[in-house]
Each structure stands twice: as C-alpha cells, then as structure tokens.
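Q: Hi! Curious about what S1/P1 nuclease looks like structurally. Here's the sequence.
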Amino acid sequence: MPSARRLLAASLAMLVAIPVAQAWGPLGHSVVAALAQRHLSPAAEAEVEHLLAADHTTRLADVASWPDQIQDNPAQATLWQQTRKLHYINFRGGPACDYVPPRDCRDGECIVAGLQHYVAILGDRSQPDSARRDALVFVVHFMGDLHQPLHDGYRDDLGGNKYQVQFDGKGSNLHKVWDSGMLKTRGLDWQAYTQKLDAEGPAALPLPVAPLDDPYAQWAEESCRITAAPAFYPDGHKVGQDYVDAELPVAENQLRIAGRRLAEVLNLALTPQ
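A: Let's find out. The predicted structure is below.
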C-alpha cells in the first residue's frame, strides 16, 4: 500500500476510536452530504468545488444520489453494472455481523471494498479530474449507504427488501421504510432536515472494536448490529407510530454519524499530505 494510502487508513482508524460521537433515498443522501459539507476543511472544500465545477454546482447534496440515478441512464449502463453491487453488503454469518471478506465481499463486490476503491482514487492527484469527480460522488453516496442499517443486513431477506410490511396504510417493505418512508414523516426538505440535525451537535460515535485496520468494515458491522436488535423487525409486519417513534431517532442518528464520518474521510482524502 503506498504511503499516502497507509496514512489515510491509519487516520481513519483513529477516527473510529474517537468517542464523541438505494440506501437512503434522495432526502437522506442529500442530508448526509450537506451535513458533511458544513464541516469540510478549507482545502477540502476548495477541492470539492474544483471537482464539481463540471456539474455546475458546489453542493455535494446536488450529486449525492447520482450513483443510484445512473441505473436509469442507458449511457451509464456499463458503470451501473460495475458498481451496483457496491451499494451494500449482505452479511452471511448470522446475527454476529462479523465481516469476513471471502464470505461477505466475494470478488470485492460490496460496499466496504467500494469505499476502499473510490477513496483511493479520490486521494490520488495523479488521476484525471473526471475520475476523481466520479470517485467523490461515489464516496459521498456510499458513506450514506453504509450507515443505512439495511444496506448492511442479511442475505436471507436481501437487506429487508423481502420483508413485506404495512406502512402508512400501504404495502411496502422494511428496506424502503428505512430508505425514505420514516424520514418523510418529518415533513422536512433536505435543507431544513440538515439544519435540524446539525443543530444537535456532533454525533456520538459508537465505541470501536479491535482490530482497527479497516474502518469501513467496522462501520458496516455497526450498522448491521442495528438490524439485529430485537424490535428492529416489526411484529406482525406492521410499521405503526410506535415503531416510527422508536426507530426514527435511530435513523436520524445514523444520518448524523454518516455526515460526521464523511466530512473526516473527505478532509483526509482531499487535503494535501
């Protein structure tokens, strides 16, 4: 591993250890991106603006859902096929949520490997701006996905996609409820939602678990353990107000954690060493 990548991995491992504190649909992804952008270093902010210039925006929130949107663009069909399995991880080892790469990320096709790949490209100034721009957008998106618990769920129900529920008087599935259904009950757009969550201060990060050599894997395990909580899968397949009252704060805390960690990842990758 080149020295710059070694330094980045070591710095991210330190971030895991500091206590304080479609995945999400477009609303959640925009919130994570906007939370992160509020806490970028001046150097990282300048590099974000440089890389997004071709998109005629300076806001990460404007491009945060692009890795999902390319599935509907025939011109991006090849890129979608190359990246579609990088949005999630299906743990195969049961409720322990232990990450075993040969089992859980075969051929590097999971979100943990996806983040490793794109963070390395983003931080490599020898790469063309077009490649680093795409890497930036994938990092923003995948950091959001990584903190949506059902993007780090179990193979048997495909991260809640096969767990049918009744929500808001309609049939749905648990994955969709977590992606967007619960967040929309606030009735806020992404700007107002970002303001609300940022006003709560820095998110408290879960305590780290050794080894600390792969932060993305550890963060995936954290998210997976949320899905293993006793009440996460609703009784009777019905998502009522009691469930929303209990789980919406969990979802919002994941947005806050994702925004904080994304800011740190971008600050490390985009600030000259």
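A: A fun detail: Residues 3-270 form a domain with the P1 Nuclease fold (CATH 1.10.575.10).
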